[in-house]
Amino acid sequence: MNSRERQFLKVMRKLDAAGQEQVVAFAEFLRSRQKPEAPQEKVIEKPNLLPAREGESVVGAIKRLRESYSMLDAKEMLNDTSSLMSRHVMGGIEAETVIIELEVMFERHYQRYCGVPEDD
C-alpha cells in the first residue's frame, strides 16, 4: 500500500457513513470519466532453436528444448515431459524416438502459447 492509499484510508475512517458513501460515489464518478486503457498486446517470443548434439540423451534433449523454448512454462509441460521420460526409462523406447516426440511436444506447447488452436 502506498502513501496515498494510507492517507485515503485515514480520511475515510474519520468520516461518518454518509461521508464515506459520498466519497465512494465521487470516486466511482471519477473512474467512469476515465478513458479505458487499451488492452496490451501479448508479445510473442520466438524460440531460439538449438541444434541437437550428437549422441544426445533424453535428459540433454529436455534441457536443450527448455533453453530453446525459454518462454514456455516448464511446470505446464511437466506431465507430458515426465510421461515421455518414463516411456524411455521404463518402457524401453529408444532415446531418438523419445527426443523426436519431445520436439513435437515442445512445438505443440509453443503453438498453444502463440494462440494457435489445436487440431482435434
Defining traits:
120 residues; mainly alpha; elongated; 63% helix; 0% strand; 5 helices
Quick structural summary:
This is Crp/Fnr family transcriptional regulator. This protein has helices spanning 3-14, 17-33, 58-68, 74-89, 95-114.
| Coarse structural class | mainly alpha
Overall geometry: elongated
Largest sheet: none
Helix content: 55-70%
Work out the strand percent.
under 5%
Mean of residue pLDDT values:
89
Alpha carbon gap, first and last residue? 47 Å
Tell how many strands the DSSP assignment holds: 0
Topology as a string of helices (H) and strands (E)? HHHHH
Radius of gyration: 26 Å
Oligomer: single chain
Q: Ranges with pLDDT <50 over ≥5 residues?
A: none
Number of helices: 5
